[in-house]
UniProtKB/TrEMBL annotation:
Listed InterPro entries: SARA-like_C
The organism's place on the tree of life at top rank: Eukaryota
Organism per entry: Thamnophis sirtalis
GO BP terms, alphabetized: endosomal transport; protein targeting to lysosome
Protein name, UniProt field: Zinc finger FYVE domain-containing protein 16-like
Family matches, as PANTHER family: ZINC FINGER FYVE DOMAIN-CONTAINING PROTEIN, ZINC FINGER FYVE DOMAIN-CONTAINING PROTEIN 16
Length: 222
C-alpha cells in the first residue's frame, strides 16, 4: 500500500472503537483521541502499536491495524566518501547542517553543510548537535584567511574528522584524499582545541567521532 492516513476524530460515535476504511492504494483509519494519544506515545518511544477497529459490541469480530518498526534495508550515503582519505560513508549516520552562520573573506565563502557521526550514536543529544556547530564556527575562523589559497589550489571541499574520548582528542583535516598542509592544521589547532576540551569536560557522550564537511565557494555578493 502506498499510504496510510490516520485521522483523529473529535466527535465520536460511542458504539465504535476505531474506524477503518480501505481505498485502492491505501487505508484511512479514524481513531479516538485516546488512541491517538497512545499512538503518539508509542511513536515517540519507537514501539510497535496496534489499533483495534470495529463496533464495541461486535463480539470477537475485530479488524486490526498494526504499526511496526522495521529495519531499514536501504543503505544510507551510498558511494559517499570522505575528502580526507576516501573512507566510505556508506551506512554512516549523518545530518545536514542548517545554520545561517558562514564566513566570507576576499570574495570566498566557506560553510559547513553536513556532519557524519562515525561512532555508533544511538541517540544524538542536543549537546552533540551544539558541538558540531561550535566546531564549524571555530573552523571558519581558522580557515578564513586561507580561503582564497585553498580554493585556488582546488581544495574547495574539506573534511574535518574529530575523535574524542575521556583521555584522547585528535582530528584530521583533508581534501581530495590528502591531509591539509601543516600550516593550515596549526591554525585549526588554535581554534579547535579550546572548543573540544571545553566540551569533553562537561559531557557523558563519549567516545565520539564525527566528520564535518565544508565547501568553499565564490560569494554571490561580489
Amino acid at each position: 500500500m502506498q499510504f496510510q492516513l490516520l485521522k483523529k476524530s473529535i466527535i465520536w460515535v460511542l458504539c465504535l472503537l476505531n474506524a477503518l476504511c480501505f481505498f485502492i492504494d491505501g487505508i484511512m483509519v479514524q481513531i479516538t483521541p485516546e488512541t491517538m494519544e497512545g499512538l503518539r506515545q508509542a511513536l515517540s518511544e519507537k514501539k510497535d502499536f496496534q489499533i483495534t477497529c470495529g463496533k464495541v459490541d461486535s463480539g470477537d469480530f475485530r479488524e486490526y491495524v498494526d504499526i511496526c518498526w522495521i529495519e531499514n534495508d536501504e543503505k544510507t550515503n551510498m558511494r559517499i566518501t570522505s575528502p580526507i582519505d576516501g573512507k566510505s560513508m556508506e551506512g554512516v549516520q549523518s545530518e545536514k547542517i542548517v545554520q545561517e552562520e558562514c564566513f566570507e573573506v576576499d570574495g570566498k565563502l566557506v560553510k559547513c553543510t553536513e556532519v557524519f557521526y562515525l561512532s555508533k550514536v544511538s541517540e544524538l543529544h542536543n549537546s552533540v548537535h551544539q558541538l558540531a556547530k561550535e566546531i564549524a564556527l571555530a573552523s571558519y575562523i581558522a580557515l578564513g584567511k586561507h580561503l582564497k589559497t585553498l580554493k585556488n589550489n582546488g581544495m574547495n571541499k574539506i573534511g574535518l574528522r574529530v575523535s574524542m574520548d575521556v583521555d584522547m582528542v585528535e582530528y584530521q583535516a583533508g581534501s581530495g584524499g590528502q591531509v591539509l598542509p601543516q600550516h593550515y592544521l596549526n591554525d585549526l589547532d588554535s581554534a579547535l582545541i579550546p572548543v573540544i576540551h571545553g566540551w569533553i569536560s562537561n559531557t557523558t557522550s563519549l567516545p565520539l567521532e564525527m566528520e564535518l564537511i565544508f565547501f568553499i565557494n565564490e560569494s554571490l555578493l561580489i
